[in-house]
Amino acid sequence: MMKALKRWGMLRLAVTTLALAAVALGLMMRQARAPTADEWAREAETPAPAAEALENGARVRPGCAVIQTMGFSRCGHSVTRRVNVPASLAGGDFAAVRAYYDLWQIETCTPDQITMTREIPLFCPMHQVLAINEAGEIVLTRNAYGDGMAVVKAYPLHVEDVDEEARDALMAGKGFDSQADAEAWLASVH
User: Fold this and answer.
1) Would you say 90 and 60 are in contact if contact means Cβ atoms under 8 Å apart?
2) 180 domain-assigned
């Protein structure tokens, strides 16, 4: 009986994690908007500075630095990371860079360094976020992937156990600086 309960708990945790990832993806898709015809036309008329940097046959060199800045709209923070260009992109031109990093806005692109930005409609990894999973349970999540939330802890509370104002905050995801802050808030509304 205990083994069955443990398996059921692990299954629920896995389903919760997948559901939160799906919700985060859905939020990102809703936030995205297609460029207008005027925006497309302006982009076509004005070559981007990054495109000019790799003109005249210039190519990305092996070991080229890739500097990625992710802006997190839910908290206003940003995280910058520096990695080397993937081996498959070495020798590529600007079109190859743009295709590879299609979710990013390329800011500069030279043979030795590529800088890019991306706005993500989530909290940054520094925050703990109370939310509601697909079963209506209150869970603590954290941005463990940069662009997706992972369940840190599930609480034995249901969405119906809190007042309407707290429920609305949890439906959107309520961010905190620490797990202790999140649990103090949860205790105050329960």
Assistant:
1) yes
2) yes
